[in-house]
Amino acid sequence: MRRFRAILFDLDGTLADTLADLANAVNHALITLGCSPHPLPAYRYFVGDGARNLILRALPADKSTLAEEALELMRVYYDEHCFDQTRLYPGVSEMVDELHRRGITQAVFSNKPDLFTKRMVSHYFPHAHFAIVRGQLPHLPIKPDPTVALQIAAELKIKPSEWLYLGDTNTDMWTACAAGMFPVGALWGFRDREELIGAGAQKLVTRPEEVLHLF
User: Fold this and answer.
1) I need a surface site. Which of 52, 76, 102, 146 has the fewest CB within 10 A?
2) pLDDT tier at 127 (50, 70, 90 boundaries)?
3) Hey, which bits of the chain come out as E strands?
């Protein structure tokens, strides 16, 4: 059995169910700008590729010039409401604790802006066992570009082939494959098994506790 020394987690849809708070923030921006809001299920396919792409997907095609204004409205609202409905998925906290007990290096990498990523991880994991928590930064490419994933591996001096990457979208699977990490799809997240397998997932898990069996 392949042995891994480290795990790289996506955040939204993998560690935490953030969908309702993200949807509410974007819908607030849309309504403020005179656009129609979207139902919650639509956001499963809007999220995952950073805040700007989220806004562009939500805005009507003829309103793309409002993207910057909408982005700022969303950020201000989300800053005040990002913990309203967001919760860790059942079993996630226990999984993280057990991986720490086993000596597995853990890190978080998200396309969510870095400030929100760090704030959310600190809130939900007050005694966090993460060696690195990194979100989207202006000077670095977002997933599926593997640059940041490879930087994290290099900083922690663990070869990419010794990392398991857990995520819930095609973007995550593409990132893992491009970085030479082992891609595992979280079926409790925002997307379905067909998307994950099609994007290169080598393993699918239905519950966080199943991740422990891979170490």
Assistant:
1) 102
2) confident
3) 6-9, 16-17, 87-88, 105-113, 130-136, 163-167, 182-186, 203-205
Is there a single domain that holds both residue 58 and residue 121? Answer: no
Domain count, the chain: 2
For 14, phi and psi rounded to 5 degrees? -120, -60
Q: Report whether pLDDT(131) > 60.
A: yes
Query: Strand, coil or helix: what is 184?
Result: strand
Containing structural domain, residue 71: 19-81
Same-domain pairing of 195 and 99: yes
Which listed residue (10, 12, 21, 168) is catalytic?
10
End-to-end CA distance of the chain: 9
- The mean pLDDT of 184-207, rounded to a whole number, is 98
For residue 146, the domain's CATH number is 3.40.50.1000
192 among known catalytic residues: no
Quick one: 133 and 52 in the same domain?
A: no
Q: Given this model, what pLDDT does residue 2 score?
A: 62
Query: What single DSSP character describes residue 175?
Result: H
Give tens-digit pLDDT for 132-168. Answer: 999 999 999 999 999 999 999 999 999 999 999 999 9
Q: Does 1 map to a domain?
A: no
45 and 32 part of one domain: yes
Q: What angle do CA 104, 183, 4 make, to 5 degrees?
A: 25
CA distance 179 to 181: 6
Q: Which element (helix H / strand E) includes 63?
A: none
